[in-house]
Structures are given as structure tokens and as C-alpha cells.
Design goal:
Blueprint lengths: L13 H14 L26 E5 L8 H11 L3 E5 L4 H6 L3 E5 L14 H17 L4 E4 L9 H22 L2 E5 L15 H11 L4 E6 H7 L3 H8 L3 E6 L16 H10 L5 E4 L7 H12 L2
Parallel strand pairs: 1-2, 1-8, 2-3, 4-5, 5-6, 6-7, 7-8
């Protein structure tokens, strides 16, 4: 795909990116080849200088790092929190002044599109809403589930029915339920909520500001492309964003086709006040790669 239009703004070149992120890696205390950050190393700088877009990082992408180590590095980079955390992990975030930007619930293949799953899924969502609300935080996640031979219209009806049952709980708690858009072409074969128009129709049917879509830029690049135009046309239905480079789901660098600075400017220009979470799988030193991505998206 052709690079997204930079809207006549000065682009960050590869040279300036490497210079800025090298400085970031040094200031956040990334040392050695394993990304280790000691708890007694005080933060000496940040990857975030503008802060117009609140950023976090998905915990699962850094599973080899102890949570406290990752939290220290995230705080030093200027991240506001970590994404896709369980309530039993919240204390680790609070120790370091971070928030959970998206609370985990049920699995993604067995979801709300099949009534046989509703009881278990809604219980998981309800528990996550309560735990998230107790902290004064914002988001919980949900998934459509796989098709398993079900047509998309029937799945839409079933998802809407389940969500209308649980949304009043989210409204009362001041929490937003977000259904993630995922690609069914590469990573999640048969997943139902794999197109923006299907997800937008679901949001319209539920009819509440407390149910929105998690727009995953990587996944929707695979399924649809046209990322900036989609964001501009549908941003009111999007409650959260995820990143990753495509192809490969790795670093946001010049090996991939997405051009993140103009994408992030488009998000900011819609007036978005939620979170963008880095969800790429690092191939290099994980914290250096994370600092690069955070700096790149700080528009």
C-alpha cells in the first residue's frame, strides 16, 4: 500500500527517528542486551514530549519482563499505563502510578456471537467492569468470537442482545466496553468482528456511549487498509486503538507499510481522549523498540 498522506507536515525521517530514539533509550535507562531496567535507576527522561495522545503498552507483548520492570520503564517513557491486564495485576500498576488502559475479560474465539457463551462471557465482563470501576479506570474488552458456520447477520443479532444486557452495568459504573476488531485473514481465522462496517453497525444497534470498538490499526490494515479515512469517518464509534507494524506485527519502523505519525495525527485531530496502546511483538531489544514506537506516535 502507498504511504499515508502526511498532510503537509514535516515527516520524521529514518535518521531523525534513530537519533531521537537512541536518546530515549538512554534516558529511560535501557541497559544491556536484554532490556533490563533496575528499580533503583531513576527515570532521567521520557519518550513523550507532546503528550497529545495518551499511550500505553500491551502487557502480553513483554511477557518475558517482570511486571515491575516493565512498569518502571513504561512510567519513565511517559506511558500512562499498561493494556490488557487482569484485576489481580492492578496493584503492580498502582505501585508505579500507572493505570490499566484496558481490562481483560473472556477469550476471543468463544464470544458474544453465540448465545451458549453469553452467561460465561457476561459474567467475565461484569466482573471486569466492577474491578475497573473501583479504580476509577475506563475500559474493558470483549470479543465477538469465531463464526463456526454462523452467518454474520445472526452473529450481529446475538452480540447486540448480549451487549444490551451488560451495557447498563457499564453505564452505571462509568466504564466503556470495547469490542476488538481483528483480522481473520492472517492471525485469527474465522473471527467474526473483522470489518469496521460490521462493528459500527453493532455499536449503532447497542446505542450507548458505553459500548465502542477497539480499532486495531494493524488488523484493519490487513483486512481493509484506508486507515486514516476510516478513522476520520468512524472515530465516534472507536473507544481505543492498538498499533503494530504490518507485515509481521513487529516494530513500527521502515520495514513495514504503515506510516504511524500521520495516522496518530489523524486520531488526535478527531478530538480523541482515550488511549492508544502499543501492541507489536518486538524482534529487537524490547524496551528500546517500545521507546522508538512511543516517540514515533507522540505527535
Amino acid at each position: 500500500m502507498r504511504r499515508q498522506d502526511d498532510r503537509n507536515r514535516s515527516p520524521m525521517t529514518r535518521r531523525t527517528l534513530l537519533q531521537s530514539t537512541a536518546a530515549v533509550a538512554a534516558t529511560v535507562g535501557v541497559v544491556g542486551g536484554n532490556g533490563a531496567v533496575r528499580a533503583d535507576d531513576p527515570p532521567r527522561g521520557t519518550a513523550v514530549t507532546k503528550g497529545r495522545l495518551k499511550q500505553s503498552a500491551c502487557r502480553w507483548c513483554y511477557g518475558r519482563l517482570p511486571i515491575d520492570e516493565l512498569a518502571i520503564a513504561a512510567k519513565a517513557m511517559g506511558l500512562v499505563g499498561l493494556d490488557l491486564m487482569r484485576p489481580d495485576e492492578f496493584d503492580a500498576l498502582k505501585r508505579h502510578g500507572l493505570v490499566c488502559t484496558m481490562t481483560s475479560t473472556h477469550g476471543l474465539t468463544v464470544g458474544l456471537n453465540d448465545p451458549i457463551n453469553h452467561e460465561d462471557c457476561l459474567r467475565a465482563i461484569h466482573d471486569a467492569i466492577e474491578a475497573t470501576a473501583r479504580e476509577g479506570w475506563r475500559n474493558v474488552i470483549t470479543f465477538s468470537g469465531n463464526r463456526n458456520g454462523m452467518d454474520d447477520q445472526t452473529g450481529l443479532d446475538h452480540c447486540a442482545k448480549a451487549l444490551r444486557e451488560i451495557v447498563p452495568v457499564a453505564e452505571q459504573a462509568g466504564v466503556i466496553i470495547n469490542m476488538e476488531l481483528l483480522n481473520s485473514k492472517v492471525n485469527h481465522p474465522d473471527y467474526m468482528c473483522d470489518r469496521t462496517d460490521w462493528g459500527v453497525e453493532l455499536v449503532k444497534r447497542v446505542g450507548s456511549d458505553h459500548f465502542k470498538l477497539l480499532y486495531d490499526i494493524y488488523h484493519m490494515q490487513i483486512m481493509e487498509g484506508d486507515i486514516i479515512r476510516t478513522i476520520e469517518a468512524n472515530h465516534r464509534f472507536f473507544g481505543h486503538y492498538h498499533t503494530a507494524g504490518n507485515p509481521g506485527r513487529n516494530e513500527l519502523d521502515d520495514t513495514q507499510e504503515l506510516n504511524y505519525p500521520p495516522i496518530c495525527r489523524a486520531i488526535v485531530d478527531t478530538g480523541f481522549d482515550g488511549y492508544l496502546a502499543q501492541e507489536f511483538i518486538p524482534k529487537r531489544d524490547p524496551l528500546t523498540s517500545l521507546a522508538e514506537a512511543v516517540a514515533l506516535c507522540d505527535v
